[in-house]
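Dear colleagues,

As part of the handover before I leave the project, I'm documenting each prediction I ran so the next person doesn't have to rerun anything. This entry is a single chain, and its sequence is reproduced below.
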Amino acid sequence: MSATSLLGCGEAPDAGSVETTGQHEALSVTTNGLSSINGLSSINGLVAANGLSSINGLATANGLSSINGLSSINGLSPTNGLMTTAAGRDTVAYIVKCALPAGDSLVKQDQDGTSYTFSGGLGICPAWKNGGIAGNAQCVEGISACVMAHLNTAGVHVPLWLDSPISSIGWGVDRFDYPMQEGTFFGDIFDAGSLSGIGKPGLTGPLAYYCDGAGFPAGADGVVAGRLGANQANAPYKNPFGVGALCQTAPGTTPQYSKGVIGSCPPQVTNPPASGCPDGYSTIQANGGVWNYPITVWRNNHYRPQFDTGYQYTLSPSSAPSQVLDTGTSAPIQIWNASADLPSSAFTLAPSGGGWTIAPLANPALCLDAGSGAPGAGVDLVSCNGSPGQSFTITPDAQSGDFFLKAANTGRCVQIRSGATAPGSAVEVADCAGTAGQKFDIHASTFAPADGAQFNFEQGAQGWTLSGSPGIGLAATNVVSFAGDQSLAIGMNGPAGAVFAFATSPVPPAGAVVTFNFYVPPASPIRGVQPFVQQGPAGNWAWTGNYQPIGNLKPGAWNRLELQVPAQAQPLWRVGFFVATGWTGAATVYVDSIAW
C-alpha cells in the first residue's frame, strides 16, 4: 500500500500540502501539530480549558455541517465559524487533510472573500467534499479519530505513523523509525446529542477518547511534547478505561497483527505481554458503544521538533513550572509568573539555519541573544540581526517531553542562573548538565492584548443599561471579543423595534472622536445600528449619532464605527448606541472597545 508523508503544518493555503510519497507495506506516515489552542479551541469546537464542549460538537456551532458537502456554503460556511479566523482555518486544514485523498483539494473563501486551498492527504472520507456524511460512521468516526491523532497541545509538529481498519490508512509497522506505540484515538467530535445516527443510541456526543499503546509503557524513553504521556495542557480527550489504561488490556478490543504475535513488540517494551503488541485495533468497546474506525499512532522518541510560525509559545523551566521566560527586563531576561499572562512572556519561533530565533510578542523586532555563549553569559534581548548568538537549537528530552535550548554558536544550554526558581531570577547559558533548570516546557499559547479602552468590558458590563423592546438583557461575555477577552452582548427576542444600550459614566469630552466596535452575527434580524452621544440639560439634550444600515456592516466580523462629539457640546449625559430590528426573531449583537 502506498503511504503518504504530509506536512500538515501552518495555516491554509499551505497547510496539509503533500511533501513526499513513498512505499511502505501499509498505513500512513503523517505530521502532527494541531494546537488545542490554535486549532481545536473553545471557539472552534473543542474547549481548550475543559475538554469537549458539553453543548456543541464541532459540526453544530462552527459553520461546519455533516449534512452537506464541504464544498457547499451550507457544508462549510465562509462567513461563520471556522473559516473566519486563522485558527479555525488551521482546523479546516486538518479536517480536509484527513477527509480527502492526496491530490485532491478544497477551495473555500473566508468572510472577506479571500480564497484558501486546503490539500487532502489521508482520504478517509472523499465523499464529504460534495455530499453529506451524517450517519456515515466511517466518515464521522474516522475523521474524528484522525483530527484527535494530529492534536499536539504544545503546538509542536512531530512525525507520526498511523494504523487503522480504514482502508486508506491500513495496517503495518515500522519498528525502526516508529518504534513507540503511543495510543489509539476514537470518538465523534462532530455531533452533539444522541449518536444513534452512527449506531450508538446510548451515547451522547461529542465524545473524544483514547487509550494508551502497548509500546509506550510508563517510564519508557518516548515522551513527546504535547502528546500522550507528556505534561499535556488542556488535552481535549480522555481515557475511558482509566488513567494509564492500555488499549490492549481493555475489554472488548480487537487487535490486529500484521506480522503475528511473536516478536511484535518494540524493543523498548521491558515486559512484552504474551499476547504481543498489535499494530492497532479494528474495534474498541467503551461506555456501551462499539467504535469501528479507531486510529492507532506510532512515533519515535527521537525527532527534530518543528514549531509553527503562526503560533505563540511560552517557555517554562521544569524547575519552576509556575514561571515562564519573560522579556520585561532585557539585561539579562528573567523568569516571571506565568499567571500574569504578559505579552513579554509569549514568543514566536522562526527558523534560523539549523536553529530558531525567539522573539517576544510584545516586541517582535527584538530577539533573544546568548552573546558569545560563554558559561555564565546572560541571555539578553537585542535587535534581531541574524547573528549566531540569536540562533538556538531546540532538542527534546525523551523522558519528560520538555526541551533543551542551546546557543547554536557554542552548544551550551540555556538555564536559570544558580538553579533559582523565584520570579525575577536571571536566565543565562552554561555547560549542559541535564538539570531541571535546563529543561523547558514549551506550549502553544494564546495572548489577548490588553484592551485599554474606556469601556472594555473585561470586568463586567461597566454600568451599561438596556432599554426598549425587544431587548431581553445585556452582559459581558467571552463568546467574541475585539480586544482583550470580553465584549458586551445585547440580547434581543421579539417583534421589530429598537433597543438602546448606554452608560452615563465615563462620558467623552467635547470634540472627542469616539470609536465603537460592533459584531453582528450572520442572518440576524438587525436593520441597523447607531452609536450616539447625548448632551445633558445644559445642551438641551442634543443628540449626535452615526446610523449605519445593515447593508453597510459586514456580518460575522467586527465593524469599526466612529462619531465626533461636537466641539461646542455641553457636558454629556450619556454615550451609547441603539439597534433597530426588522422582523420578529432572536438575535445578539456585541460591542467592544469603546474608546476616545
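Residues 86-99 form the longest helix (14 residues). The CA atoms of residues 365 and 384 lie 6 Å apart.

All the best with the project,
I.
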